[in-house]
Amino acid sequence: MKQATSRLNWVDIQLPLRPHSKNWLDIAFCDEFHLGIALKPQSVRSVGVEKQSERSPWNVHKVISKDTKAKAREEQPLKLLSVFVTVGYNYRRVITYEVPNNVGKMTTKCYLNYILPTINDEL
After folding, report:
1. pLDDT, tens digit, for every residue of 8-55?
2. Inter-CA distances, 118 with 6, 18, 85, 100, Å
3. Which of 55, 56, 76, 78 could form a disulfide with 36 if both were Cys (CB 3.0 to 4.6 A apart)?
4. Residues near 86 by Cβ (< 8 Å), separated by ≥ 6?
């Protein structure tokens, strides 16, 4: 909660200083994502929304069986791909990284020794 409050305070300070979109060209936004990668394709079934328009590509949804997902987690945990993404005006960068924990959360050591030097060199 403290981080969210400090971010809102930063925005309150910056908005009067940067009232127009052209004033934000030197700002970059970043976040980290963790994606589970299945080694084998999982069974997927198609579900039609309406019987008469079953073949329409807009009315078909891909659904992965809950049993298949649960079984994959029990037998072999999904391998995590951890990605750090930075987006700015005329700039985007995707950095994959590995961490020593099972949840994929970035450590301070990883951020300071790998992510930050990569971004600093480019920005």
Report:
1. 998 899 999 999 989 989 888 888 887 777 666 555 455 554 455 555
2. 26, 27, 12, 20
3. 78
4. 28, 29, 30, 92, 93, 95, 119
Which of 28-37, 46-55, 75-84, 109-118 is predicted with the least confidence, judged by mean pLDDT? 46-55
Q: Residue 57 carries which side chain, given as an amino acid letter?
A: P
- Whole-prediction pTM: 0.59
Encode 55-79: b = buried (16+ Cβ within 10 Å), e = exposed: eeeeeeeeeeeeeeeeebeeeeeee
Cβ atoms of residues 77 and 37 within 8 Å: no
Residue 98 token pair: 């590995």
The residue ranges of DSSP E strands in the chain, in sequence order, are 28-37, 44-48, 60-64, 79-88, 91-97
